[in-house]
Amino acid sequence: MDAQLTLDFGPPPPPCFDNFVPGANLECLATLRHLVQSLKHGETPAQRFFYIWGPEGSGKSHLAGALTASQCPNLMVVDDVDRYSKGRQRTLFHRFNALIDQPDHALVVFGNQPPARLKLLPELVSRLSWGMVFSLQPLDDNALADALEQSARERGLNLGQDLSTYLLRHTRRDMASLKTILDGLDRLAWARKKPLTLPLLKDYLQSQRQAGEEGKAEG
């Protein structure tokens, strides 16, 4: 098997459009890219209000981070609106109303449910339904494997198809959990000065299961 000894390359790069694996979400990615380009060039976007929702691991936080990292002028980004207190909801509602009269500004809001299912202030839910709504689709097996291997490369790891297949079959399939495992594998391989192999992966996962069981027993 093609394996590589991991080196300390530091933390992976921050989220951006280029390292987002879109899968079935290509239209959403292209739309957000165009929005950023329009605002940076001082143009008035055809659509200025967006609500993007999806389940855990569908890429919401990555896209929110990419928008924030773009340092785009006149762009407001809100992540996890479903967790907002009533006070923050009212503030966002008034901010939304203020942006209506500012054609050179845009607002992108992320949440975990479609607008009609959000347990937020009715007036805010109404505003979130105004603009363009995207439903992010979780990655299928092929796209998830691509995303996993890309994330491994960003850490200086050569994961290989057999390891990625094993991970997807035996662990949680959301990218947040998979990236946590990659971070742990990176540290373990470096500490042991061993290449990243399937036995090392199994050893790591077993140690994590044992740690979890011991934690439950102590609790």
TrEMBL record:
Domain Hda lid, first and last residues per copy: 142-205
GO CC terms, sorted: plasma membrane
GO biological process annotation, one example: DNA replication initiation
Segments forming domain Chromosomal replication initiator protein DnaA ATPAse: 74-133
An example Gene Ontology molecular-function term: DNA replication origin binding
Domain of life: Bacteria
Pfam families for this protein: Bac_DnaA, Hda_lid
Protein name: DnaA regulatory inactivator Hda
Organism: Lautropia mirabilis ATCC 51599
